[in-house]
Amino acid sequence: MAGPAVAGCRERPPASRTTFVPEIQGMMFALGDAHRPSPETAALVEDIVHTQLITMLHQASEGATLRGSRVIAVDDILFLMRRDKRKVSRLLKYLQFRDYKSKLLKSLEDDDAQQEQGAGPSGAVAGGAQRRQRLAQDYLLWLDHTGELLSLAERQEMDPVKRERLERMERHSRAMDQTQYAEFCESRQLSFAKQASKFRDWLDCSSLELKPNGVAMEILSYLAYETVAQIVDLSLLVKQEVVAKTDAVAHVVSASHIHYNTRAEVKKESDSPEATPPSTPGSSKPLLQGNGSLDGGRARQRKRKKSCPATVEPSSGAIQICHIREAIRRYNYRHTSAYRRSGMSYLAC
Predict the structure, then answer these.
(1) What is the pLDDT of residues 303-330, one digit of tens each?
(2) Cα angle 185, 187, 193; round to 5
(3) pTM value?
(4) Which one of 79, 120, 213, 243 counts the least CB within 10 Å of its CB?
């Protein structure tokens, strides 16, 4: 999700506004960033996610108004996502998971209640078991007459993006000690959905004329996390490319510097006073002083070592702001043409 407003990034909001920066730092760590992601980088990610969700809410509100609805519903968000079938498929599977989780939790609660009361089994759970999925499917059935979008939820193929993230997480966790791995597991469980009231305040839903209903808020929290994940995905690719280029340039510069200076210094030192052998103990020839002294030669060698480009400061392992800006610039360049009407290319939909 990233639009033209992201390139310059809007000014930071007042400190009193609800913030998800600590949570986003944990999410970035779980998604492959360094153990301690930069707070400034996390603040930029928060700005991008917040800007795009607010824009999405306003566009969804326009759609809900045209439908004559009093709330922003799943229909209005699916309409914004209809262009990308793969991301629609991800959303449908997420709704399936939410329905399954709700059904499981409800079943466990009912079993506990029945055991306490000694009642028989109840079939009330099945009634609302697939509420989210049914809402999405009903709208897609009306929107897509070919049935192509509906068939996405039935596909069992592995999402390549999700697979790449899981593989990266596995590689990321190999070098962790026990404490870091425990923190990593906790970070993987972070989400916007677990802090529903804070998430509503963060989006300032109270100021909207049409407010999102419960299912719409679940989808928005899912899209917020997916936006963070895709920003990390793209930024890690940019960071990897930058590091590879920096290492290659440093290696070439270092090699050429050593080769050039070795030849030049051999020629200089063969004719320099420093190459003159020291006098024998019985000789009356004094030791060299001044610029031609041995101390002066050592000083020049120390000076050359300080100016040598081979000693490059290692860059931080965390994602930097420049990596995010470059990732967003590339994404906008590839995707904005498909969204000329709205002027906003979303990362998560």
Answers:
(1) 444 444 333 333 458 999 999 999 999 9
(2) 120
(3) 0.69
(4) 120
